[in-house]
Write a structure and sequence with these properties.
about 240 residues, alpha+beta, NADH Oxidase, 4-stranded antiparallel beta sheet, 6 helices
Length: about 240
């Protein structure tokens, strides 16, 4: 991924106030270029991104197969766009709580999953690190805490922060919080959120000068109240 995304992790925020100023042709061209530049976490997962106008500006609609890894992969690529457009000086908001707009027609074999609202921000784009409202730790091994600080700062629906990371400096196991009754509200957004956190985690790994491969064979260990998702093996 673009290394310029990494610093954006520590200052990005969701923008809820937008100016009435329309996006310029140059800005729309930039957005379309970023749509083409996204790097999937799981190349075998099919997804589609669409840039569409709306009454309030523009939106990026995300579609994928409604499977655990399909949703994770979509969250991963959409978060790249969130960071890329922050770097470009545009406002972005995870929008609609996963409900498909009435005019959306999903591509064959895929379903609507999530949307990014985009526009000219009417409020500051950045915030101080102290303004982030996140839980203190997302790791079982404190040796991973510094490396995975960017994942701790990832946004999530209702600030639910469903991720947990275990392992060591070479192998990171990724776990997803069991939803329980919250499944009725969060649904597949819980998996989208995992992709968002993984985008931040991978940027951190790449920032540290490492490469990685993805494995989905569960380790022998378990984590109470969490389900295994995948493993990042670092080189």
């Amino acid at each position: 991924m673009n290394p310029n995304f990494y610093p954006a992790i520590f200052e990005r925020k969701s923008i809820r106030k937008y100016a009435e100023t329309p996006l310029t042709p140059e800005q729309l061209k930039l957005i379309k270029a970023e749509l083409e530049a996204v790097v999937p976490l799981l190349p075998g997962e099919t997804f589609k991104l669409e840039l569409n106008p709306s009454k309030e500006g523009w939106r990026i609609y995300g579609y994928c197969e409604n499977t655990p890894l399909g949703n994770v992969n979509l969250g991963y690529v959409l978060q790249q766009l969130d960071l890329a457009l922050h770097v470009a000086g545009l406002g972005r908001l995870w929008y609609g709580f996963g409900r498909a707009p009435r005019d959306v027609k999903a591509p064959k074999g895929l379903s609507y999953a999530m949307c990014l609202k985009i526009g000219v921000s009417a409020e500051p784009l950045a915030r101080e690190l102290a303004e982030f409202d996140r839980r203190a730790s997302v790791v079982t091994n404190e040796a991973l805490a510094e490396l995975l600080e960017p994942a701790r700062l990832a946004p999530s629906a209702m600030n639910s922060q469903p991720w947990l990371f275990s392992g060591d400096a070479e192998t990171i196991h990724v776990w997803r919080k069991q939803l329980g009754i919250k499944k009725l509200v969060l649904g597949r957004m819980n998996l989208i959120d995992m992709g968002i956190a993984l985008c931040h985690a991978v940027l951190a790994i790449e920032h540290a000068g490492k490469t990685f491969t993805v494995d989905v064979n569960a380790p022998t260990e378990t984590q109470n109240d969490y389900d295994y998702l995948l493993t990042l093996s670092m080189n």
